[in-house]
Amino acid sequence: MAYDRPWKSFEEQLALLKARGMGVADKAAALEYLERVGYYRLSAYWYPFRVFETVGHDRHGRPITKAADQFVHDTQFVDAVRLYLFDKELRLRLTDALERIEIALRVDIAYLLGERDAFAHLHRATFHPSFARRRFGRDPRDSFEKWQERCLGMERRSKEDFVKHYRQKHGPRLPIWVAVETWDFGTLSQLFAMMKVPDQQRIAGKYGVPDWEVFQSWLRSLNYLRNVCAHHSRLWNRNVIDQPKLPELGILPWCDEFHDQPQLIARPFLLLGIVRHMTRVVCPDTGWHRRLQAHLVTFPAQHAQRQLSLDDMGAPLGWQQWWSA
């Protein structure tokens, strides 16, 4: 199909929004945001204010809706801007905490495996046979081989002085406590998933999670969250693709709020709770979670007839009671 949507000037973009029922109280400010942030990025924040029409029903009788080219009554351009700014600050605060968690996990893994062998990460025997030999689709490489390629590729691309120093002085292979500093969160998460169960349990236990499979899923989800933040993508009401598992009831009381609540697990607030939990383990005296709470309660009010709230993020009732405890 040929793409048939023409280029539009900023003035034309704003005129289109007004024609679809969006109010613009400050034209100059609206044009500035379109010029600085862009129509497409902002559209993710005014999308919830569009009128949705029922176009059919699925096999279970549930309505199938489609967004119309109109906004609900009283929608204002500033409603989308305030959501965008709230989301931007949310991602910035999460990036701070995710950095602390990632660095702590690097130390945890390098310390545990490095005690046995400085080059433990290069040896297949270090890892669980079943986990390391997994294959997906038609790719002839197993998990260990793909991870090795990714790991070595990141080492080669590193421009850090400490990498050059080690290679010049000790040879091309980097010990795990050096190599780990060249990896991203995804590489770290994949290595953890290949580790032997006792090793996974030991690290998971440090974070108060006795089930290694739950903790493994947490790391995958945090890597997903990190990528959303790193690419400046919309977060506040996103449907989470890589959803985390939950420990059994009573293990972590705050997690109990999400049990048997698939609609909450599919939203990002649970990931915020995981970040809160792990950050407090990494930095017991941190005030990060209280600063994030202070930001969350500033969720912007809207003019639009359709009202949005932290409920759209998947926040359970009474979340503030355990958040700062």
UniProtKB/TrEMBL annotation:
Q: Which domain of life is it from?
A: Bacteria
Q: Name one Pfam family in it.
A: Abi_2
InterPro entries recorded: Abi_system_AbiD/AbiF, Abi_system_AbiD/AbiF-like
This chain belongs to which protein, by name?
Abortive infection bacteriophage resistance protein
List the lineage, top down.
Bacteria, Pseudomonadati, Pseudomonadota, Gammaproteobacteria, Oceanospirillales
